[in-house]
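Protocol step 4 of 5: obtain the predicted structure for the target chain.
Materials: sequence only (see below). No template structures provided, no constraints applied. The aim of this step is simply to have a reference model before the mutagenesis design in step 5. Sequence pasted as it appears in the construct record:
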Amino acid sequence: MRYSRLDLSIIDRLISLLGQSKINKSKTSTSILKKLNHIYTDNKNEYSKIVDLYIDHLNSDLMTNFGRRAHICLSLISLNEGVNFSNITMKDSVDIVDPLFVIGLPRSGTTNLHNMLIDNFNYSGLKYWKLTSPNPIFDNNSLDTLARKTRSLLGFCLYRYLVPSIQSMHKVKMTTYEECWHFQKIMFLCYNYVIQLKFFEFGDELLNVDTSCIYKQYKRLIQQSTEFDKVYALKCPDHMMFLDSIDKVFPKSEIVWIHRDPYDSLISYCSMVNSVWELFFGITDKKEVGQFVLELFDRMIKRTISYQSKNDKIINISYNKLISNREKVINELSEKLDRKIEISKKATQSNFFKNKYNKNKYDYRISRDEVYDRLSYYNDNFSDYLK
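Step 4 output (structure tokens):
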């Protein structure tokens, strides 16, 4: 039995008995490519290799029967949302100010920093329900908001059932400002699939195609917002892989990179990755989880350092200093971003600065020294921000 949960084990076995273990590659590939060509009209037929890689990986023996079927179903549902979003007619006259992007390793304080920027500098943000349900349903704004929140809530309840431990690690509400990968997944070209499916080949191929098309969709999302005239702050660790693409679409964007001790971030993130892997792969090898996250961090940091070597627009922030002297950091950011401090009356989300992410149920068999040795160049470049 590959699952520790009885309900998932039963479903996994039923899928096998019904002869539905594998995905029809030809039929599914054609369906996905048709949708992608509809969304990315300027990049037609560019994604056949990445789609083939995706389906072959799902059909590999790594995946459980349930994990395979769950991911393809969720992926196709999200992709249909992306097709509908691409059909929305935008007003060409709507112009926006290039957003600010918050980046950093997973579990390094990006959520806290993101909320703090919105609360203290009058940035606007994309809430969970807007990211996961971007398509209008009704003309009436109040009714439309209620319907889209309800649809997002139903999807979230399903996710909580499938991965019940996630909410204790990263609390999500329909009205919290959330990570951009929730929007990326409806566009399929989602780096988070690398993490969900322990699938670096997907990410490698993603970097070989023009990913600026993803950020053109972000621009459309902001354009249809009622606050399109405000500056948006967008947050996701995955942005670290696509900074060049961000520059193509948002050349005047600003970037804030928060730094935290990579071992503390890694151990915390291992728990999250392990919970997701248990859904798609069943019982996991905890050492494999630790090594995967270390490789992921290495790739993210190197990619960002490479970008930073050619650009001086990144503002670096220390997680520890943000916790110990938040007011000072806010004042420094005000100066560097050239924005007045305007504390929101609804500033309720940025008081999360508690070092609460280090309790772990499992031992991922990776030492602090091993992480420091692998990422020694990170400390060499950013020691002032990692203290």
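Step 4 remarks: The CA atoms of residues 20 and 80 lie 22 Å apart. The first strand starts at residue 100 and ends at 103.
Proceed to step 5.
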